Each structure stands twice: as C-alpha cells, then as structure tokens.
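Bug report (template v2)

What were you trying to do?
Predict the complex of my protein with 2'-deoxycytidine-5'-monophosphate.

What happened?
Run completed; filing so the output is reviewed.

Input:
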Amino acid sequence: MGKNHIIAIDGYSSTGKSTLAKKLANELNFIYIDTGAMYRAVTYYALKNHLISDRHFDKDELIRLLDDIVIEFKKNPETGHADVYLNGKNIEKDIRQMEVSNFVSHIAEVPEVRKKLVAEQRKIAQNKSVVMDGRDIGSVVFPNADLKLFMTASPEIRAQRRFDEMKRKGMEVNFDEVFQNVKKRDKIDTEREDSPLIKTDDAIEIDNDSLNEQEVFDWVMKQVRKKNIISGQS
Ligand code: DC
C-alpha cells in the first residue's frame, strides 16, 4: 500500500472551500471531510437542548454532555456526498439553517469542543487519504498535511454566494442578515484564543474573487501533481 495523503483546505466562510474539496476528493478518490459540519452538529445539539440562545450559553453543561454527542458521516446515495448524522439522525439540512450559523462560532470557541472534534477528525483520517476543510486543519489538525490551501474572498462576494445557495435550497433568507453573519463569524474565527483561523507559512493562498471555480480547480490540481499526491488511495 502506498502512502496516505492529506490535503488541508482552510479559509474564511463561503470562500468555496467545500466546492473545491468535493471536486478534489472526487478526482483523486479521497474521502472528503467537512469539519464545519461537525461544529454545526454540536451547535444544533446545543440549540435543541436549550443550552444556547441570544440570552444565555450554558457552556459547563455542554462540556458535561460532550460524551453524549455522537457525530458520524454517511454517504448519501442521491448526492454522492457524505451527510452528517447526530446521534443517528440525519441533520445535514438542519445544520445549514441561519439559526445554527448564528451560534456556531461561539460553540467553536470552546476548547473542550475543539479537543473532542480534532481527535475525531484525526481518527476519521487514520489510514485514509483525505481532503479536509475547516479553519484549523493545516495549523492544528494536520500540521504535516501534504498540501495546505488557504482560501480568501471579499465578505460581499462570500455573503452573496451563501445567500444564493440558501435561496436555491428554498430557504427564507435576507441578504443583510447573511452579510452580517459572515462578518461576525470572520471576527470570532480569527480572534478566538484556541486555534484561530490563520494562514500558515506553508499554505498556498487562493483568492477566489479573481478566479472562477474551474480555474481554481485546475490550478490546485497542478499543485497536487507537483507534490506527487497520487489518486485512488482512499
Ligand atoms: O465552514 P462552516 O461555515 O460550515 O463552519 C462553521 C463554523 O465552524 C465556522 O464559523 C467556524 C467553525 N469551524 C472551526 O472553528 N474550525 C473548523 N475546523 C471548522 C469550522
């Protein structure tokens, strides 16, 4: 068996990380892991259990209950991609709602939550070739990843992209609410104490404002070949 490979994709929200990650995983026959979905799953759990709201956040109780939170990914035959499950229930659609987006950065600030999810991310990737996207993949989860990408784009373009995506899915959304949420999450994600979003020195920056989806993909595939990352080992 050849070496397993890890491609880490970090960056701000709605910069096209998951689109790129899915295309790469398909092309290379690697497993795709959306770590944002894991933080969203914990947030969904906290909301359902009334541990977080506009007025309060019962962090200690969430930490106490962390062992009860079981997150899994299972392939959806219709989309060909993995859906996220919380304690056996498919919550792929629920975690994309604005309510979850509004609280997820606060949940992602809690060191105990990060510790649990980072351990699970490392476990999922054991003995596999993976494309993993998030905020701390190249800096914390896999500092020795074979290829590290850091994606950026202006907040306006990112908010528009997320707004269009939610509309397409038939969700009730307001552009300003999405825009404010993007800016608020950037601030919390980059300024938090534990594992803030940073570009590591060895990560390659991709500005998604100036390149289209195909151009980004073609350019990244060149980097993949340069690094001798070989497909078909998932
Ligand atoms: O990629 P996303 O928008 O679904 O991520 C949701 C939130 O989860 C994001 O605002 C920050 C947090 N997150 C994180 O802190 N670390 C990760 N590896 C992935 C996501």
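What did the reviewer find?
The chain has a mean pLDDT of 94. The longest strand covers residues 6-11.
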